Amino acid sequence: MFVVRVSSSLGKNALLDIAATHELLLLRPSVVSSKKQLDLALHLAKKSFGTKASIAKKFHLEFLLWLAGCKDIRKAFAETTFTDEKNILVISFGSGTKKQIMDSLSAKEKKLLFSDKFEPLELERISLSRV
Questions:
Q1: What is the Cα–Cα distance from 45 to 11, expressed in whole angstroms?
Q2: CA distances (Å), 12 to each of 85, 95, 119, 122, in order?
Q3: Given this model, what pLDDT does residue 117 score?
Q4: pTM of the predicted model, to two decimals?
Q5: Which of 14, 58, 63, 105 is an S-S bond match for 10, by CB 3.0 to 4.6 Å?
Q6: CA 118, CA 131: separation in Å to the nearest integer?
């Protein structure tokens, strides 16, 4: 898995098509404020897949459900999907390299804006979303 913030010259539909074929999540950067959120969602997705308790059939979608803190994939996409092609947080679970993914998205890398601090309520929302 790698995470990068990008700006793309492609339109939303083209980006979503690429994301579907490359196991990418294209999110609003404001959805993730710290690396801790990503780490927790990754850990919980691995655990649910390992115990066969996952809701989604694909790992990257299970990760999204945990990150969004919900059980409905449509709701998770509605709450997290990017709205501006010039500001996208890309999370890759596929086999392509960072350069290959960036090229396919016609993207330029931007600085990640993660905070060193994290909101405990955000982590609680993720971890308790299936209780």
A1: 30
A2: 7, 22, 30, 27
A3: 77
A4: 0.91
A5: 14
A6: 22
* Cα dihedral value 115, 130, 18, 91, nearest 10: 20
HSE-CB of 9 using CA atoms within 13 angstroms: 6
Are 87 and 5 a contacting pair, CB within 8 Å? yes
DSSP structure string for 25-80: EEE-GGG--SHHHHHHHHHHHHHHHHTT--SSSSHHHHHHHHHHT-S-HHHHHHHH
Among residues 61, 60, 69, 58, the alpha carbon closest in space to that of 31 is found at 69
Q: Which helix (H) or strand (E) holds 8?
A: strand 2-8
Whether residue 96 is predicted with pLDDT greater than 90 in this model: the reply is: no
Q: What are phi and psi of 111, to 5 degrees?
A: -70, 135
Q: Which amino acid is located at 94 in the chain? A: G
